[in-house]
Design goal:
single chain, four-stranded parallel β-sheet, alpha/beta, TIM Barrel, about 220 residues
Protein backbone atom coordinates (compact mmCIF):
# COMPACT_ATOMS: atom_id res chain seq x y z
CA UNK A 1 0.00 0.00 0.00
CA UNK A 2 1.40 3.40 -0.94
CA UNK A 3 1.77 6.25 1.54
CA UNK A 4 -1.23 8.14 0.16
CA UNK A 5 -3.55 5.22 0.86
CA UNK A 6 -1.97 4.61 4.26
CA UNK A 7 -2.79 8.19 5.30
CA UNK A 8 -6.37 7.89 4.08
CA UNK A 9 -6.72 4.66 6.05
CA UNK A 10 -5.22 6.33 9.13
CA UNK A 11 -7.74 9.19 8.89
CA UNK A 12 -10.61 6.74 8.47
CA UNK A 13 -9.41 4.67 11.43
CA UNK A 14 -8.95 7.75 13.61
CA UNK A 15 -12.30 9.12 12.46
CA UNK A 16 -11.25 12.71 12.94
CA UNK A 17 -8.58 15.10 11.73
CA UNK A 18 -7.43 17.70 14.30
CA UNK A 19 -6.29 21.00 12.78
CA UNK A 20 -4.83 24.19 14.19
CA UNK A 21 -2.20 26.92 13.91
CA UNK A 22 -0.35 28.81 16.59
CA UNK A 23 2.46 31.31 16.13
CA UNK A 24 4.67 29.83 18.86
CA UNK A 25 6.50 26.74 17.58
CA UNK A 26 7.04 25.21 21.03
CA UNK A 27 3.37 25.54 21.96
CA UNK A 28 2.41 24.06 18.58
CA UNK A 29 4.70 21.10 19.24
CA UNK A 30 3.31 20.50 22.72
CA UNK A 31 -0.25 20.64 21.39
CA UNK A 32 0.60 17.92 18.89
CA UNK A 33 2.43 15.91 21.52
CA UNK A 34 -0.60 16.09 23.85
CA UNK A 35 -2.92 14.84 21.12
CA UNK A 36 -0.42 12.15 20.10
CA UNK A 37 -0.27 10.89 23.68
CA UNK A 38 -4.08 10.66 23.62
CA UNK A 39 -3.94 8.45 20.52
CA UNK A 40 -3.96 10.82 17.54
CA UNK A 41 -1.77 9.71 14.63
CA UNK A 42 -2.79 12.17 11.90
CA UNK A 43 -2.71 15.97 12.38
CA UNK A 44 -3.24 18.93 10.07
CA UNK A 45 -1.17 22.02 10.91
CA UNK A 46 -2.58 25.04 9.10
CA UNK A 47 -0.77 27.68 7.06
CA UNK A 48 -2.45 30.63 8.73
CA UNK A 49 0.43 32.83 9.81
CA UNK A 50 3.90 33.95 8.70
CA UNK A 51 5.46 31.53 11.21
CA UNK A 52 3.73 28.47 9.73
CA UNK A 53 6.57 27.27 7.50
CA UNK A 54 9.38 27.63 10.05
CA UNK A 55 7.14 26.12 12.74
CA UNK A 56 6.38 23.19 10.45
CA UNK A 57 10.09 22.47 9.98
CA UNK A 58 10.58 22.48 13.76
CA UNK A 59 7.56 20.28 14.48
CA UNK A 60 8.36 17.81 11.70
CA UNK A 61 11.97 17.30 12.77
CA UNK A 62 10.95 16.65 16.37
CA UNK A 63 8.05 14.43 15.37
CA UNK A 64 10.34 12.26 13.24
CA UNK A 65 12.34 11.46 16.38
CA UNK A 66 9.68 11.41 19.10
CA UNK A 67 6.49 10.50 17.19
CA UNK A 68 7.68 8.40 14.24
CA UNK A 69 4.24 7.01 13.36
CA UNK A 70 2.61 10.45 13.16
CA UNK A 71 1.39 11.72 9.79
CA UNK A 72 1.75 15.52 9.76
CA UNK A 73 -0.03 17.42 7.02
CA UNK A 74 -0.35 21.09 6.18
CA UNK A 75 -3.65 22.88 5.60
CA UNK A 76 -4.83 26.18 4.12
CA UNK A 77 -2.66 25.69 1.03
CA UNK A 78 -3.94 27.82 -1.85
CA UNK A 79 -1.06 28.06 -4.35
CA UNK A 80 1.46 25.81 -6.00
CA UNK A 81 4.32 27.77 -4.42
CA UNK A 82 2.93 27.18 -0.94
CA UNK A 83 2.49 23.51 -1.72
CA UNK A 84 6.09 23.14 -2.92
CA UNK A 85 7.44 24.93 0.15
CA UNK A 86 5.68 22.56 2.53
CA UNK A 87 6.56 19.50 0.46
CA UNK A 88 10.18 20.54 0.96
CA UNK A 89 9.47 20.92 4.69
CA UNK A 90 8.33 17.29 4.84
CA UNK A 91 4.53 17.52 4.78
CA UNK A 92 2.90 14.10 4.56
CA UNK A 93 -0.27 15.44 2.95
CA UNK A 94 -1.81 18.73 1.86
CA UNK A 95 -5.24 20.19 2.62
CA UNK A 96 -6.80 23.18 0.84
CA UNK A 97 -9.91 25.29 1.49
CA UNK A 98 -10.36 25.51 -2.30
CA UNK A 99 -9.62 23.67 -5.54
CA UNK A 100 -6.48 24.99 -7.21
CA UNK A 101 -5.00 23.37 -10.32
CA UNK A 102 -1.42 24.25 -9.36
CA UNK A 103 -1.76 22.62 -5.95
CA UNK A 104 -3.25 19.57 -7.65
CA UNK A 105 -0.27 19.46 -10.03
CA UNK A 106 2.27 19.65 -7.20
CA UNK A 107 0.61 16.92 -5.17
CA UNK A 108 0.17 14.66 -8.21
CA UNK A 109 3.82 15.15 -9.16
CA UNK A 110 4.85 14.06 -5.66
CA UNK A 111 2.19 11.32 -5.47
CA UNK A 112 0.84 12.95 -2.32
CA UNK A 113 -2.59 12.92 -0.74
CA UNK A 114 -4.41 16.19 -1.47
CA UNK A 115 -7.66 16.99 0.36
CA UNK A 116 -9.33 19.91 -1.46
CA UNK A 117 -12.14 21.94 0.07
CA UNK A 118 -15.52 21.97 -1.65
CA UNK A 119 -18.87 23.65 -1.03
CA UNK A 120 -20.96 22.76 -4.09
CA UNK A 121 -21.66 19.63 -6.16
CA UNK A 122 -19.85 21.26 -9.07
CA UNK A 123 -16.72 21.72 -6.95
CA UNK A 124 -16.94 18.12 -5.77
CA UNK A 125 -17.13 17.00 -9.39
CA UNK A 126 -14.06 19.08 -10.27
CA UNK A 127 -12.17 17.66 -7.28
CA UNK A 128 -12.95 14.16 -8.51
CA UNK A 129 -11.37 15.03 -11.87
CA UNK A 130 -8.17 15.62 -9.90
CA UNK A 131 -8.57 12.16 -8.31
CA UNK A 132 -9.27 13.50 -4.82
CA UNK A 133 -9.64 10.41 -2.61
CA UNK A 134 -10.90 12.52 0.28
CA UNK A 135 -12.81 15.79 -0.05
CA UNK A 136 -13.20 18.40 2.67
CA UNK A 137 -16.69 19.89 2.97
CA UNK A 138 -16.13 23.49 4.02
CA UNK A 139 -17.50 25.50 5.73
CA UNK A 140 -19.35 22.67 7.44
CA UNK A 141 -21.08 24.90 9.99
CA UNK A 142 -22.88 26.69 7.15
CA UNK A 143 -23.74 23.59 5.11
CA UNK A 144 -24.63 21.19 7.93
CA UNK A 145 -25.12 17.38 7.98
CA UNK A 146 -28.31 17.64 5.90
CA UNK A 147 -26.20 18.87 2.99
CA UNK A 148 -24.07 15.70 3.05
CA UNK A 149 -27.20 13.57 3.20
CA UNK A 150 -28.57 15.42 0.16
CA UNK A 151 -25.54 15.05 -2.11
CA UNK A 152 -24.01 11.79 -0.87
CA UNK A 153 -25.79 9.54 -3.38
CA UNK A 154 -24.67 11.76 -6.27
CA UNK A 155 -21.07 10.74 -5.63
CA UNK A 156 -21.08 7.03 -4.73
CA UNK A 157 -17.92 5.89 -2.99
CA UNK A 158 -16.56 9.40 -2.44
CA UNK A 159 -15.07 10.05 0.99
CA UNK A 160 -16.11 13.29 2.71
CA UNK A 161 -14.79 15.05 5.81
CA UNK A 162 -16.59 18.17 7.15
CA UNK A 163 -14.44 20.94 8.62
CA UNK A 164 -15.64 24.00 10.49
CA UNK A 165 -17.95 24.00 13.48
CA UNK A 166 -17.90 20.28 14.34
CA UNK A 167 -18.62 20.10 18.08
CA UNK A 168 -16.97 17.76 20.60
CA UNK A 169 -20.32 16.37 21.67
CA UNK A 170 -22.01 13.04 21.03
CA UNK A 171 -25.14 14.28 19.25
CA UNK A 172 -23.29 16.53 16.81
CA UNK A 173 -20.61 13.99 15.88
CA UNK A 174 -23.18 11.19 15.52
CA UNK A 175 -25.30 13.37 13.22
CA UNK A 176 -22.35 14.00 10.93
CA UNK A 177 -21.54 10.30 10.65
CA UNK A 178 -25.18 9.44 10.01
CA UNK A 179 -25.13 11.89 7.13
CA UNK A 180 -22.44 9.84 5.38
CA UNK A 181 -19.05 11.35 6.27
CA UNK A 182 -16.02 9.13 6.86
CA UNK A 183 -14.37 11.39 9.45
CA UNK A 184 -14.74 14.88 10.93
CA UNK A 185 -12.35 17.81 11.02
CA UNK A 186 -11.77 19.15 14.54
CA UNK A 187 -10.49 22.70 14.80
CA UNK A 188 -11.18 25.36 17.41
CA UNK A 189 -13.94 23.34 19.06
CA UNK A 190 -11.21 20.95 20.20
CA UNK A 191 -8.06 23.10 20.15
CA UNK A 192 -9.47 26.39 21.41
CA UNK A 193 -7.66 29.70 21.64
CA UNK A 194 -7.92 29.41 25.41
CA UNK A 195 -6.15 26.05 25.36
CA UNK A 196 -3.41 27.47 23.14
CA UNK A 197 -2.88 30.76 24.98
CA UNK A 198 -2.96 29.21 28.46
CA UNK A 199 -1.07 26.05 27.45
CA UNK A 200 -3.79 23.78 28.83
CA UNK A 201 -2.15 20.62 27.56
CA UNK A 202 -3.71 18.29 30.15
CA UNK A 203 -7.17 19.59 29.27
CA UNK A 204 -6.43 19.09 25.58
CA UNK A 205 -5.26 15.53 26.28
CA UNK A 206 -8.54 14.74 28.05
CA UNK A 207 -10.66 16.50 25.42
CA UNK A 208 -8.87 14.56 22.68
CA UNK A 209 -9.55 11.26 24.47
CA UNK A 210 -13.21 12.24 24.66
CA UNK A 211 -13.36 13.26 20.99
CA UNK A 212 -11.74 10.01 19.86
CA UNK A 213 -14.15 8.00 21.96
CA UNK A 214 -17.21 9.88 20.64
CA UNK A 215 -16.01 9.38 17.07
CA UNK A 216 -15.56 5.64 17.53
CA UNK A 217 -19.02 5.35 19.04
CA UNK A 218 -20.52 7.27 16.11
CA UNK A 219 -18.79 5.53 13.21
Amino acid sequence: MNKKNKIVDAILSQGMLPLFFYADAEVSLEVIRSMYNAGVRVVEYTNRGPEALSNFYTIKRTAEKDMPDLYLGIGTIKTGLEAEAFVDAGADFIVSPIIDSEVALVTNNHDMLWIPGCMTPTEIHVAQQYNAKLIKIFPANILGPAYISSIWELFPGQLFIPTGGVEVEAANIAEWFRSGVCAVGMGSKLISRNVLDKKLYHQLYNDTLKALELVQLSK
